[in-house]
Design goal:
Length: 286
């Protein structure tokens, strides 16, 4: 396997490769030492005793965790779909040629992007007296939708200007230019930022436990605060954290699959153009 140089990375020479190998070995030793020290502290404080891990053997506790995980996925699914839709609408408003619509969309985006998510969730839950799930989804949608609007707008602007100009020259309307020319090309540039924001939305669903929404973290909190099992905080963290990490990794894997399919799409590949040859006589020529 050969290493290719890019605009940001040159092929390392022999000295650089030896230096990188040394840095890698030192980093590995430090990480292993840190992990060993943490494991020593956990064993020393009795975090792996059977009493602290026994709750996970009971069917009721397992059902509580599964129900909380299902509620987390439900909130994330609703918030992600609504955030993408809101982001698309706000991005279209910010790209509009109508000044009033552009100003309203900009004010909406800047306001909700600057507001803390927790404040919006509490406002909807307390002031508007909405149920926990709609309040959580509303807060996540307003914030993530505003951020995604900027992602969409930046992605469209990242497409070469000549692409849109050529489409307009062919007589296409602005809606056609956006949907058939600019957006399909911008998706590839926007995809990493979109997935990153969806990961943020997934992690922010844990704020639901503050408004008594029975999501995954809320279920873990109930187990961790149980005196009958000697307050198993660390075991709960060791069980819940890998699941959150796994869900985020699944999102990243899906994004990678979509990006590979985009690259394999024949419509995204370059078209071979025949070399220029001698032209015929000009129109009206003899």
């Amino acid at each position: 396997m050969t290493t290719e140089s890019t605009a940001l990375y040159d092929i390392p020479g022999p000295s650089a490769r030896r230096r990188h190998l040394l840095y890698g070995l030192l980093s590995t030793v430090v990480i292993l030492a840190l992990a060993g020290w943490i494991l020593h502290l956990l064993f020393d404080t009795g975090q792996f005793t059977s009493v602290k891990w026994s709750p996970f053997l009971y069917e009721g506790i397992q059902e509580l965790l599964l129900r909380g995980l299902g509620n987390t996925l439900k909130a994330f699914a609703c918030a992600s779909v609504l955030s993408l839709a809101l982001g698309a609408v706000l991005a279209a408003g910010r790209l509009s040629e109508h000044r009033v619509l552009r100003w309203v969309s900009t004010l909406f985006v800047e306001f909700f992007r600057a507001m803390p998510v927790l404040v919006m969730i509490f406002f909807v839950f307390v002031a508007l007296k909405v149920q926990p799930l709609p309040a959580l989804v509303a807060g996540l949608t307003l914030y993530n939708g505003s951020v995604l609007a900027e992602v969409f707008r930046t992605g469209v602007h990242s497409v070469a200007r000549g692409q849109g100009e050529a489409a307009y020259a062919l007589g296409m309307r602005k809606t056609q230019v956006m949907t058939h020319v600019l957006v399909p090309q911008a998706v590839r540039a926007m995809l990493p930022a979109i997935i990153s924001q969806l990961v943020v939305a997934l992690k922010d669903t844990s704020l639901g436990f503050l408004i008594t929404y029975e999501e995954f973290l809320h279920a873990g909190k109930l187990i961790a605060s149980n005196l009958d099992y000697d307050l198993p905080f660390i075991p709960v963290v060791l069980v819940i954290s890998p699941i959150y990490i796994g869900m985020c990794m699944i999102l990243s894997w899906c994004a990678t699959r979509v990006a590979r399919r985009e690259r394999r799409d024949p419509r995204a590949k370059a078209v071979d153009v025949a070399p220029a040859g001698p032209g015929g006589p000009p129109p009206g020529g003899r």
